[in-house]
């Protein structure tokens, strides 16, 4: 039995599996096991899931799709898992009734959610079905979503039992003289006019107090604003003067820095090396008139030797008295 047959038998017994487990069965490395699995998938003998376990997909046989849900709980975003559970319970989801998060999640659940385009009254709507649902179940659920069941009918009037009327209690009526009625009306009208006058006077006094308070607040606010503006102007002037002083100081420092110091040490050293036929290939001035790094070629008989030197002026004073 070759390795590919062993892999197929292993998947039959265990279900969806990873390349690391397959490599242990065929006693080889993971790279060889994944190569065998990709070859089997190209032959159509096994399938590869979009769901990944630690960065590696699952390999399974056709007909083992229902076992993929067992790996979803620990290897998926919790929000995507909620959408997956809803699709599994409802079997069909309508795109137009979903929120944005559910729409994005369904597009990532390629192993479990299958898109369906349904034509409704010259319109094309998108539905999502559970991957294990059959055609009859899908048609029934779509009909339920499109044409929801009507509400229960109201009971007929014949079934309603009329309530027994309560006995009427006789009213006692006493005659009222017309003079008393007119007196009561005049008293009520006087009271209403007095209350209205009092309310108008109170409103006017309140309005006058409000206007006075508002004018006082305006004057105080304008004074405060004038003072704040004067303070701001003085602060701006001080800031401008300080900036001008800083600019003058920085320009003076720059002028001081631009003063160059003449190098008198290297020309003497160059003449000395030329006298001895020493060729200077590179030089790096560490400190002017103090220290230099050089790469030189020194003739040595028929040979030329490359030497790295660090020369200091304290040493060269002995050579150049």
What do you see in this structure?
This protein has 321 residues and is an alpha+beta fold. The chain folds into four domains: 1-72, Arc Repressor Mutant, subunit A, CATH 1.10.10; 76-148, Arc Repressor Mutant, subunit A; 194-230; 265-319, no CATH class. The protein is built from nine helices and eight strands. The protein has helices at residues 3-14, 19-26, 30-43, 78-90, 100-108, 135-146, 178-258, 265-275, 313-319, and strands at 47-53, 56-60, 92-94, 113-120, 123-130, 279-287, 291-300, 303-312. Strands 3-5-4 form a three-stranded antiparallel β-sheet. α2 packs across α3 (30-43) and α4 (78-90) packs across α5 (100-108). The chain starts with a helix and ends with a helix. Mean pLDDT is 76; it is low at 153-185.
Strand content: 15-25%
Overall geometry comes to flat
**Helical proportion, percent range:** 40-55%
Distance between the termini: 94 Å
Determine the mean pLDDT. Answer: 76
Secondary-structure element series: HHHEEHEHEEHHHEEEH
Poorly predicted segments: 153-185
Compute the gyration radius: what is it? 50 Å
CATH fold node name of the largest domain? Arc Repressor Mutant, subunit A
> Reading side by side through the largest sheet, how are the strands ordered?
3-5-4
Structural category is: alpha+beta
Task: Report a brief summary of the structure.
This protein is of the alpha+beta class and 321 residues long. The chain is 52% helix and 19% strand.
């Amino acid at each position: 039995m070759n390795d590919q047959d062993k892999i197929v038998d292993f998947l039959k017994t265990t279900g969806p599996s990873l390349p690391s487990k397959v490599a242990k069965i065929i006693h080889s490395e993971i790279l060889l096991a994944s190569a065998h699995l990709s070859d089997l998938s190209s032959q159509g003998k096994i399938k590869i899931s979009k769901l990944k376990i630690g960065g590696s997909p699952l390999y399974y046989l056709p007909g083992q799709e229902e076992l993929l849900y067992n790996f979803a709980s620990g290897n998926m975003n919790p929000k995507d898992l909620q959408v997956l559970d809803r699709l599994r319970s409802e079997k069909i989801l309508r795109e137009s009734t979903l929120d944005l998060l559910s729409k994005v999640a369904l597009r990532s659940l390629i192993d479990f959610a299958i898109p369906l385009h349904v034509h409704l009254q010259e319109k094309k709507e998108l539905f999502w079905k559970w991957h294990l649902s059959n055609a009859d179940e899908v048609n029934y659920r779509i009909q339920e979503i499109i044409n929801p069941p009507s509400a229960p009918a109201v009971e007929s009037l014949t079934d309603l039992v009329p309530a027994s009327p309560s006995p009427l209690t006789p009213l006692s009526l006493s005659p009222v003289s017309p003079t008393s009625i007119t007196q009561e009306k005049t008293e009520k009208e006087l009271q209403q006019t007095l209350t209205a006058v009092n309310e108008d006077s109170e409103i006017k006094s309140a309005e006058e107090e409000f206007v006075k308070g508002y004018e006082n607040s305006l004057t105080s606010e304008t004074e405060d604003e004038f003072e704040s503006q004067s303070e701001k102007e003085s602060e701006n002037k001080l800031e401008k003067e300080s900036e001008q002083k800083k600019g003058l100081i920085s320009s003076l420092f720059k002028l001081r820095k631009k003063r160059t110091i003449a190098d008198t040490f290297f020309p003497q050293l160059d003449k000395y090396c030329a006298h001895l036929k020493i060729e200077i290939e590179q030089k790096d001035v560490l400190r002017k008139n103090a220290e230099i790094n050089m790469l030189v070629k020194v003739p040595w008989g028929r040979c030329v030797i490359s030497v790295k030197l660090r020369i200091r002026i304290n040493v060269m004073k002995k050579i150049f008295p």
